[in-house]
Amino acid sequence: MMRSCTAALRTLRVLRCRLEGAFPAARHPVLARRWFSTEKVIPKDQALPNPSWSKDLRLLFDQFMKKCEDGSWERLPSYKNSKLVKEQLSQAQLFTRGYEDGLGFEYVMFYNDDEKRTVCLFQGGPYLQGVPGFLHGGAIATMIDATVGVCAAIPGGIVMTANLNINFKRPIPLCSVVVINSQLDKIEGRKLFLSCDVRSGVDEKILYSEATSLFIKLDPEKSLT
Ligand SMILES: CCCCCCCC(=O)SCCNC(=O)CCNC(=O)[C@H](O)C(C)(C)COP(=O)(O)OP(=O)(O)OC[C@H]1O[C@@H](n2cnc3c(N)ncnc32)[C@H](O)[C@@H]1OP(=O)(O)O
C-alpha cells in the first residue's frame, strides 16, 4: 500500500515537471493551485446578474429573460460551453471571464435558433479603458469576436475566426451598456459569414460599431499547428 502511494506520488511529480516544461504558465502559483488541487471546483455561471451590473444591464437582462419564456430565445450560461465544445477544458476559461466582477467584461448572451442570431448585453468596466473615459478598441473587438463566434459555433461546431472587419463609428463610454447583435448571414461549405452591430443599450439609438466576419469550420483532417 505504502509502496503504491509512493509510486503514485512519484508519477504525479514527473507529470507535473513535464507539464511545467511544456506549459511554463503551470508554474504560476494560482494556476498551480488550481491545476494540482484535489478540491472539487464548482463552476459558477458568470452570465447572471451580480452587484456590479448597472440598472440598464439589469433591465435589458430582464427583457431578454422574458423573451426566453416562449422558448424562442435561450440564455447562454458562461461556463456551459458543452453546446460548443464537447469536452470540458477543466481549468481553461475565456479571458473575458478572468476579471473580478465589474472590472472587465460583464456580459450575457442570448441565442435565437430560428433566426440564427446571438445578442450580447455588454458592460465594459474600468480595466478596459483605451482613450480616457472610453472602451479600448481591442476590448470592443474581443466582444464582437466572442458574440459572432458563438453565433457561428452553435450551428457550425468547432470554428475559428479567419477574418474580422470592424468599423468603429462612435466611441463607447466606459461602464455604459451596449447591445451586440449578430447574425449568421450564409454558410458556404466550411465558411460561415456573419455580421454584427453594436448599439447603445436600452434605446439602441447610437450605432457604435459595425462588423462582418468569416469563420471557418475546422477540418478534422488538418492539424492546427
Ligand atoms: C465559442 C467561443 C467564442 C470565442 C470566439 C473566439 C474566436 C477566436 O478568436 S479564434 C482565434 C483567432 N483565429 C485564429 O487564430 C485562426 C488562425 N487561422 C487558422 O488557423 C486557419 O487559417 C483557419 C483554421 C481559420 C482556416 O484554415 P483551413 O481550415 O486550412 O482553411 P483553408 O482550407 O485554408 O480555407 C478554407 C476556405 O476558407 C477561405 N479562407 C480561409 N481563410 C480566409 C481568410 N482569412 N479570408 C478569406 N477567406 C479565407 C479559403 O479561401 C477557403 O475557401 P474555399 O473553400 O472557397 O476555397
Automatic annotation (TrEMBL):
<dbReference type="GO" id="GO:0032587">
    <property type="term" value="C:ruffle membrane"/>
</dbReference>
<keyword id="KW-0999">Mitochondrion inner membrane</keyword>
<dbReference type="GO" id="GO:0005743">
    <property type="term" value="C:mitochondrial inner membrane"/>
</dbReference>
<dbReference type="InterPro" id="IPR029069">
    <property type="entry name" value="HotDog_dom_sf"/>
</dbReference>
<keyword id="KW-0966">Cell projection</keyword>
<keyword id="KW-0496">Mitochondrion</keyword>
<keyword id="KW-0443">Lipid metabolism</keyword>
<keyword id="KW-1003">Cell membrane</keyword>
<keyword id="KW-0053">Apoptosis</keyword>
<comment type="similarity">
    <text>Belongs to the THEM4/THEM5 thioesterase family.</text>
</comment>
<dbReference type="GO" id="GO:0052816">
    <property type="term" value="F:long-chain fatty acyl-CoA hydrolase activity"/>
</dbReference>
<feature type="domain" description="Thioesterase">
    <location>
        <begin position="133"/>
        <end position="204"/>
    </location>
</feature>
<keyword id="KW-0963">Cytoplasm</keyword>
<keyword id="KW-0378">Hydrolase</keyword>
<dbReference type="GO" id="GO:1902108">
    <property type="term" value="P:regulation of mitochondrial membrane permeability involved in apoptotic process"/>
</dbReference>
<dbReference type="GO" id="GO:0005829">
    <property type="term" value="C:cytosol"/>
</dbReference>
<dbReference type="InterPro" id="IPR006683">
    <property type="entry name" value="Thioestr_dom"/>
</dbReference>
<dbReference type="GO" id="GO:0006631">
    <property type="term" value="P:fatty acid metabolic process"/>
</dbReference>
<dbReference type="GO" id="GO:0051898">
    <property type="term" value="P:negative regulation of phosphatidylinositol 3-kinase/protein kinase B signal transduction"/>
</dbReference>
<keyword id="KW-0809">Transit peptide</keyword>
<dbReference type="Pfam" id="PF03061">
    <property type="entry name" value="4HBT"/>
</dbReference>
<dbReference type="InterPro" id="IPR052365">
    <property type="entry name" value="THEM4/THEM5_acyl-CoA_thioest"/>
</dbReference>
<keyword id="KW-0276">Fatty acid metabolism</keyword>
<protein>
    <recommendedName>
        <fullName>Acyl-coenzyme A thioesterase THEM4</fullName>
        <ecNumber>3.1.2.2</ecNumber>
    </recommendedName>
</protein>
<keyword id="KW-0472">Membrane</keyword>
<dbReference type="GO" id="GO:0005758">
    <property type="term" value="C:mitochondrial intermembrane space"/>
</dbReference>
